[in-house]
Structure formats: C-alpha cells, structure tokens
Amino acid sequence: MIPITLSEFEQSMEGAVFPLAVAVSGGSDSLALMLLAHKLAQKKGSYVIALTVDHGLREESREEGRRVAQWAQAQNIQHVILDWVGDKPTARIQEKARKARYALLTQWCHQNRISTLLLGHHQQDQEETFWLRLSSGSGLTGLSGMKKRTVRDGILFLRPILDFPKECLVATLSAHNQEWIEDPSNHNPHFFRGRLRQFLSEEGLVSGRLNQVIKKLQMDADFIQSSLENAIAHVVQAHDSGYLAVKKEYFSALHPAIAKRLLSFLMQWFSNADYSPRATQVTGVMDKIKKGIPFTTGGIYWVFSHEEIFLFRERRAIQQGFSISSLQEKTLWDQRFWIDPQLKEYVPEGTILGSLKSGWLNSTVETKSLSRATPWKSGELSEAIQKCHMKKLDCAGAHVPRNDNLGKAIYLHQFVPTLPALWVKGKVVAVPHLCYATLECEKDLRKFIYLKPLFHDSLRFTI
C-alpha cells in the first residue's frame, strides 16, 4: 500500500473549517489523520489541535497520553489531554467510555470555539460496524454504516479517512518515520468487537468489496432519509413551549416504513439519544396510536385530538432543575430547551431553572378563569393569567396547545407542569412561555430559554 497523498486527503475534507481539532488516541489511524490534517492546515495557513482522551481505564493510559503529546509537539502541533474523571463503569465499559469520550471532545470544542472535529475511522472500521449491526438485527439505516459527516450540537464530526484502508494509514506513518501505539483492547476477546475482528481476519471477510456494498446501502438510506425529512416538514410542527403536534390526516397517509421512521425521529427528538429507539418499541407506539387512547412511553405523553397527535414531555421524566449561576455555556435542559448563559444577567442570585410542576396554576390563578369548554387559542391562557394581576412580559406569539374535543384538564395537568420555570427560594418568579413573571425584567426571557430546533443537527447520529 502507498501513503495517502495530501491531494487525496484534501478531497475528503469537504466542509471542514480551520482551525480544527483531531481526536488522537495514539493508534496508527488517528496519528496518520493528525499528520495529514496538520500538513493541510499548514497549506491553508492555519493549525490543528490534537485531543487525547484519557479514560483512566488502563494503568498505561496516562503514559500513552504523554507519548502522543511528545509526538504532536515534535510536529509543532498543539496537544491537549482530556481526563475522564469520576467513577468508572464495570459493565458495558466500551459503550460508556465511548459516550464519555465524545462528551469530553464536544465540550472542549464548544469551549474553544472549534466547529470541526476529525475522527480516525477507516475502511475496516466501517466494515466491522456493518457486521456488528448485522449481528444485532439492524435495518437499512444501521447497515449503511457510519456517515462521513455528522453534525451534533453544532460540531461537525468529520471522518476524512473513512474510505481508506488501514494499510494506507500505516504506510503514511512509515513515510513520516512516525511510531504509534497498539491498543491491546482492540483485540481483547473479552469485548465483542475484539472477537469479531479476530473472526473476520481468520475468515477473510475484511475487504474493500464490502465497502462498495455499504456505499450502495448508503445511497438507499439517503433516499429514505430525504423522504423522511419531507414527511416531517409536512406532518410535524414544533411549538416553542416544548411540545410537538402531528397532523393525523397526513400521518395516516404515509407509507408504513416512513411512518415508523417518523415516530422513531420524534422519540429520538425527545430523548436526544445518539441512536434511534428499537424497532419493537416503535411498532408498539404505532399500534397504540391506532387505538387513539392517550399513553406514555419513552418519556413522552401522547394525546389525541380530532385532527392532531400531541406529544408532551411526561411529567415524571422531566429533568431535575439546576442553578442558573452555574451556567458557563449554552446548556440543553430536559432534552428540549436550550438555556443561554446570558440569562444570569436578568434573574436574581440563587435562581433555579426547573419544571413548573403540578398544582402551580391552581395555587396561583383563579380556577374559574381557566374553566371553559371551548379550546384555548394562542395567547388566551396567558391573558387569563395576566387578569390575575401578574406582571406582563412582552410575549407576542406565546402559544399553548389547542384541544378540539378533550377536557382542559389534559393540558392544565399534563402540559403546563412541563414548562420551564424560574424559581427563587421555592417560589415561581417567571414562566416565560406563559408570559408570566413577578420579577422586573425588560427582556423577553424566551430569548434565553428556547426550544431546540426540530431538525437539530441531524436526524440520526452514527458516531
């Protein structure tokens, strides 16, 4: 095998924004990626930063991190070691270490205003992923493998060497007289991936031909993905107060394959999980929707009207509150709302952001002002609250869900308690999405507490 040329590498870097970060473990794959990215950055008059995560799971990991730092410094490449602190898992070790690794890498990129992170997955990694997912019963989306470009939380995860075999990466290192570290866990039979690698090698099932099959599957998956995005755009509406509405007529007309993927997307939107829910769980939701009876699953409360399916956050699944003063960067609360750290400038010291909780309306607003048989229209609940002598915020366009044929208790007792609220000394001082506040504030606080987009970076994550 011959080394990867700078021209070949540059063609695979479409979309990258310099300066950028490179995840470097010290293995041949990530080290070759670091060197190639460094050469390209020099050509463009920029630079790269190498990031090494020390999981603390092996005694030698700290020394390996230092060796990577020395190699990077020898090339005039900035290097940072990110430590995974806290208790370490005793089960599902690789899975949990992977999640911690990406969390640390993403956090560092946000803190240092880096928008592109390079990952060292190569052709054999892609093929191993195919076999892993095949063994777990994955469908088309899973079998289409890792995507070359994935955006998550505003960071572009780019895999520029995904189409290159490992031998080319080793040849690239040899051309630069660069050593590398062999991670023993890669071939450890204790882990399924290690056993799989040994089996594939012994049976000769690792080859470039499978990579071509994966590319064909990716084309089919991309077509279905495009159909799904089109369906979502026409069928689903995200409301700024934290719930989703699905048009029943359009949903019923969807092909079952697209309808199930749409439900999977909605469930993943609420969970913010890396991967879609299991197919059996999605099928169960589809069956319950056909019955038209309200139900809860996946942290979601599903309610039906004549025209729409409403998805609210299930009350018992709401995330715990936290102190606004602790905010250092934009933070996702309850997997639904982005909280801007500028909020600290407009609220009292000691303010807690959390859910509104049950019983607040009954104790704050005259019950008779909310008792009615007709549907709430946009802003009407806000007006009812304001009539109870609450201070008014400028909340033009505030919206609460309409209900065509269900009692209002559905919304007062299931939806309203899921709204984000600001608490001081155990009392609610503001509910931005109800235009309610007892504190002096010239700003519409919804500018600092806002719903994450429906299409938040990517419909599926494959990192």
Number of DSSP helical runs: 15
Q: In which order are the strands of the major sheet placed?
A: 3-2-1-4-6-5
User: What name does CATH use for the topology of the largest domain?
Assistant: Rossmann fold
Distance between the termini: 28 Å
Structural class: alpha+beta
List the helices and strands and how they pair.
Elements lengths: L5 H6 L8 E4 L4 H16 L4 E7 L6 H14 L3 E6 L9 H19 L4 E3 L4 H13 L4 H4 L5 E4 L2 E4 L7 H10 L16 H12 L4 H28 E4 L3 E5 H5 L3 H16 L7 H13 L3 E3 L2 E5 L3 E6 L8 E2 L7 E3 L3 E3 L12 E4 L4 H5 L15 H7 L4 E2 L16 H7 L4 E5 L2 E5 L4 E2 L11 E3 L12
Parallel strand pairs: 1-2, 1-4, 2-3, 4-6
Antiparallel strand pairs: 5-6, 7-8, 8-11, 9-10, 10-11, 12-15, 13-14, 14-20, 15-17, 16-19, 17-18, 18-19
Helix pairs in contact: 2-7, 5-9, 9-11, 11-12
